[in-house]
Predict the structure.
Amino acid sequence: MLRCAVCRGTLESTGPGYSCRSCKRLYPEEEGIFRFKGETPAKEYHFPEGGFDVLYRSEEGSFWFQVRNRIIGALLSRYVSKDARLLEVGCGTGFVAGYLKQQGYRIECADLFLEGLNYCRKRGSGYAYYQYDLYDPVFSEEFDVVLACDVIEHLEDDARVLANLNRSLKKGGILLITVPACQGIWSDIDEYAGHKRRYSRDEMKKKLEAAGFRVLRCSYFMMLLFPAIALSRMRMGRRETPGNRQHEELVERAKGELSLPPTLNSFFGRIFALEVPIISHMDLPIGSSLVTVALKEREL
Ligand SMILES: [Zn+2]
């Protein structure tokens, strides 16, 4: 069921868009994107300027995005059948959704930012595209599976968003989440990316249980390359007063992490890819990221 992002009334399909039965608000479809954004100003969100463009140009060649896709695909295939209806929230440029669509999943894409959704459409990443705010959700018991890949670390009130993701799922639905892990390697890169936190396994489990989920799997990943990442992040640390020049340095550094020299990229990719078959079967004890699969156990 679809609900009004403003008054929570029921939405009905009216031609190319939807309208609210209660408050009569219209939600148009424009250029293939359903615009479900409510009235909450998106002031808390910080996404680096031009960030989608950088992502779009670097994802396909980056070992990190390629192998993360394979980890997500490997875990999903253990819990989800190909006829399930999937939604990826915070889909960005649609690199994950596009991969899962290629694997035969029926996936739909949602993001707050039109810039990302336009890249999604260009890629043909999903079967439908929605713009909405995770704080003002429109879907109620609509999907079999929801994915949020490196999304909730950007949100101040992650508990509220997890509760909303619960409501978007049908009973017995599956939630798959990836987040950055290990607060100990917090650096300027996290600040630049707009992260509010990095997670531990315990914190993730507690937050999901509070949001009505039963955790089925919770594994760290990027374990084998963790020492290299930890060293690099610790060396960078946090600067006291980042001036303009330092900010530029940081932007270059962040872009550099996304586009390594080809030999290093493929070397790191081969090491990281060793984790894919392991994570299919067992949880890894440490790493710079965390992947969780959870079951919607109760309604909120
Ligand atoms: Zn309404």
User: Anything to note?
Assistant: DSSP finds eleven helices and twelve strands in the chain. Residues 1-30 form one domain. The chain has two domains: 1-30, 31-296.
